[in-house]
Amino acid sequence: MKIHQKQIRNFSIIAHIDHGKSTLSDRLIQLTGIVSERDMKEQILDSMDIERERGITIKSQTVSLPYTAEDGTEYLLNLIDTPGHVDFSYEVSRALKSCEGALIIVDASQGVEAQTLANLYLAMELDLTIIPVINKIDLPSAEIQWVKNQIEEDLGLDGENALLVSAKTGQGIEQIFPAVVAAIPPPKVDPDNRFKALIFDSHYDSFRGTIVHFRIFDGTIQKGDTIVFMHNDSRYKVEEVGLFQIKRVPQKSLYGGQVGYLIAGIKNIADVKSGDTITMADRPCAKPVGGFREPTPVVFSSMYPVASDDYGELTEALERLKLNDASLIYEKDSSAALGFGYRCGFLGLLHLEVVQERLEREYDISLILTSPSVQYEITTTDGEVVIIDNPVNYPDPAEITKIREPFINATIIVPDRYMGNVMQVCHEFRGVSKTYQYLTSNRMEMKFELPLAEVVYEFYDRLKSVTQGYGSFDYDISGYQETDLVKLDFLINGERVDALSILIHRDKAEARARIACKKLREEIPRQQFKIPIQGAIGGKIIARETISAFRKDVTAKCYGGDISRKRKLLEKQKKGKKRMKMVGSVEIPQSAFLSVLKSE
Fold first, then answer.
1. From CA 112, how far away is CA 120, in angstroms rounded?
2. Who contacts 410 (Cβ-Cβ below 8 Å, separation ≥6)?
3. pTM
4. I need a labelling partner for 497 at 20 to 30 A (CA). Which of 189, 226, 349, 592 fits?
């Protein structure tokens, strides 16, 4: 049955993490009855175990919901669920570009938070109709009037007419669909125009190849059409098109305004880029949908298998994971201490954690990760600009004229009683305070400029602890600035261990070296000889710990007699230890590498 494009509504749900986005999606799906009660489960759109456990959405998901209004008109409502975390903001922006409107959800007990604002600005840039929804009104701590005032003051939306719902209990859910139909406009389509569609996501199916999620702006598509991806000019013949209704529901054809999927025997997910435009090979459209860019990694880390025999399995696991996560970038790497591995680029720290957890769980590989680092821009004495993200590639300091590192603009929203704590933490992490303003009588928005390298290392944990979990944090990359960077090496028994090296700001190097040396001393087992552990910048030692040797009491058999006999035995032992130290090698356990990465 064909539904006229005037009866289609495309909308998204945006919110801060943990404000009840996935639970609300569950209730809306339940309301339409496309999933039987028997098959219904919590967070039905979150397909990964990690998403369920952590209560976050990592991949954006789509579902087409049939809805019949009171006057009997049938509508097709396409809900595009988006990730809430800052690392996946590019996915959010592509999903929003496929919509005409958005529900912005605010927690009735926590109010407006940093990412609510960030996602609202994204939606406003794309000129979407925004409907405010206050969720969790069933909580004893809900302060509905306070949140309504915040929606008016912070977001500039109509707080008094915000929809009041409880996604958990289902209270007020039935008013959402009529509000979506009334407020959000139908898609604007010119049916005579040439076919043009935007890819906003994709996933890999081991039987059918890559399944492309797309939104059609103009024209129609059906089985047998030959399509072309405009970014890389790859051509495919369409095998199936359809709608997502939790399961894939094939259709004869899809037309302007609809959101759906296509299967075209695409074996390589790298061909399918989020934000790319699809058009017909024989009648291409004049220009692509704007705003496409390659996702750029900002955090880099090397991964090594704990057992070097697992290198082949790690290679295979990364190839398969890349099929589901096109933003993961990796290349071969090797280390004298850890053997063969891969240098990987991630969109942020959460992305790194998710990839590591998926590799360990889904593919059963134990991994060691080196300290996460960012990309630095180094200008050498002969005027060449080199970009490095790995301490191994750090050039000789004598050849460097200047180093620049990436900075971020951070927005932190906190109750004003934590203002002093937040400023202290940001200054500890080399942050510069830009502006701060009161959003309401007791909540503040604070803006800082921070080096990305500092945020990568334990900043988020510290912020959460000093604000007792009330601080919300959002950031965007602002550009590069000059910095005083040094390479901190660790020597164990006089030998440099390349996998432990880190690039760090000069002011922070000594404190970090002392902590790391202490941790290494606790983790490395004692030997028959003394083991010095040193932190060094170039040839200068800045921190040292010593693991004392096991010693046999060689003077036990001397009772009485001349002191020279005891001295002779001790000298003999000393020579033996010295010789042992020269030939002895120190095995560094895996736990030692991990201990250096963990913060205090």
1. 11
2. 426, 431, 447, 448, 449, 450, 455, 473, 474, 475
3. 0.66
4. 349
Q: Is 285:292 a contact under the CB 8 Å cutoff?
A: no
Pair (157, 18) in one structural domain: yes
Q: Is residue 75 within 8 Å of 181, Cβ to Cβ?
A: yes
**Distance, C-alpha 438 to centroid of its chain:** 29
What is the span of the domain harbouring residue 214? 196-280
Q: Using CA atoms, how far apart are residues 36 and 26, in angstroms rounded to an integer?
A: 12
Residues 23 and 171 in one domain: yes
On whether residue 335 sits in a domain, the answer given is: yes
Q: How far apart are CA 501 and CA 566, in angstroms?
A: 44
> Does some domain include residue 303?
yes
Instruction: Tell me the residue length of the chain.
Output: 600
Sign of dihedral through CA atoms 587, 591, 597, 600? negative
3-state SS, 76-131, equals EEEEEECCCCHHHHHHHHHHHHCCCEEEEEEECCCECCHHHHHHHHHHHHCCCEEE
Q: Residue 308 carries which DSSP code?
A: G
Same domain, yes or no: 363 and 386: no
State the burial class of residue 455 (Cβ atoms within 10 Å of its Cβ: 0-12, 13-18, 19+).
buried
Return the amino acid letter for 277. T
Residue 46 maps to a domain: yes
CA distances from 214 to 90, 242, 279, 326, 495 (A): 15, 10, 11, 16, 54
CA distance 277 to 565: 88
Are the CB atoms for 170 and 27 separated by under 8 Å?
yes
CA-based nearest residue to 167, from 30, 39, 333, 40: 30
One pLDDT digit (tens) per residue for the chain, 600 residues:
566 777 888 888 887 766 777 778 777 777 777 655 545 455 444 444 444 444 445 455 678 788 888 888 888 888 877 665 555 666 677 777 778 888 888 888 887 776 677 778 778 877 888 888 888 888 888 888 888 888 888 777 887 888 888 878 888 888 888 888 888 888 887 666 788 888 877 777 778 888 888 888 888 888 888 888 887 778 888 888 888 877 788 888 887 778 888 888 887 766 777 778 888 888 777 777 776 666 677 788 888 888 778 888 888 888 877 766 767 788 888 877 677 888 888 877 777 878 888 888 888 888 888 777 788 888 888 888 888 877 888 888 888 888 888 888 888 888 888 888 889 988 888 888 888 888 777 778 888 898 888 877 677 778 878 887 667 777 777 888 888 888 888 888 888 887 788 888 888 888 888 988 988 888 888 877 788 889 998 888 888 988 888 777 777 777 777 788 888 888 888 887 777 666 666 767 666 766 666 554
Residue 56 to residues 24, 59, 118, 351, 420: CA-CA distances in angstroms? 13, 9, 17, 12, 30
Decide: 528 and 584 in contact? Cβ < 8 Å.
yes
